[in-house]
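Protein arginine N-methyltransferase 6
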Amino acid sequence: MEGATDNLVVSSEAPVPQSKKRRASENGVSPGDMKNGMTEKAKCIDESYFASYSDIELHRTMIEDTVRTNAYQQAIFQNMEDHIHGKVVVDVGCGTGILSMFCAQAGAKKVYAIDASKIAIHAKQLVEANGFSDVITVIQGKAEEVELPEKVDVVVSEWMGYMMLYECMLPSVLYIRDKWLKPGGKMYPERAMLYMALGEAQWITKYEEGTYDFWVSLNHVYNLDMSLLADHAVSRYKDVVHVHMVAQEDIVSLPTPVCDLDLMKVTTDDLHCISHSFNLSSMGSRRLNSMVLWFDVWFPGGLKLSTSPHNEDTHWQNTVLPLTTASVKQDTLVHGVIDITQDLSNHRCLNVDLKYSVDKGEEIVRCFKMDDNCNDNDF
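Predicted structure tokens:
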């Protein structure tokens, strides 16, 4: 597909039922995978993935996240004279095209808006309705497969998923950066950091108590002892990654950075395994029951978009890894290693392996898979 065309290739495939997971609208497969040929399974995963993001309601969720949308708008307009006005921009995973239209409003000479899902059809219609057809060219296709007619000055993308890295859209953005960004060009955002901290998530405690009460109460209702399932229910709950807001007062330690990505330099290989050794000291006497993760990104000029529990809520929320409940006091040391790797069976999912000790206690190993179920909880 040539980047200069306005024609969109429309698939006849019906979209799959929408899950509650966070979107990314581009292919997360590395250039090496594209060269060697994707497996049929990987193709099916991507087809289902892209189809799921044709749902307009999902894009509404993102746009009505004003922290997210206003940060991009402000970053674009704050730097419009130096970076956007009269420049060529590519928007990777454009969705409805709102970021592309922000760039057009800021005076971009040309914007190439790329999205692999059918939402690109609506993006083209919106571009026309807003009078930007002479500036914005919408391209429906995978980032690794599109051909642009020229190099670009700026790469704009809202690529972040839950826990920043979930759904693996960033490799597609890096592919566009390496192939199409001019020397000295700009990345929006240009830096990303993932953090972790100790947590006492109150809703975990409430769930445990409610689960025990339910299974034990059946003995009184039906004269049957079902309490054996209580431990199983709690254990299963604690094996799942949860995307959930954590209250500021439920953060039990100062945060530590898990990774700090310079988006002008980071490579796809750097993302295959992110490992961080941590030492976290608890604040006060609390019940430690979770590890909480969140991320920040920065744009040129220094503007920051944060998903921290200490800031206004975003649709990314926080990522919570349930731990074996332990009592901690002031300056109790929790130390260990966290490894975040791409899942081999589904390149859009993540494996999160956690090894940790509380003070001088024995090492505890927790292994989580971050998949489509990570946000399917309403606690």
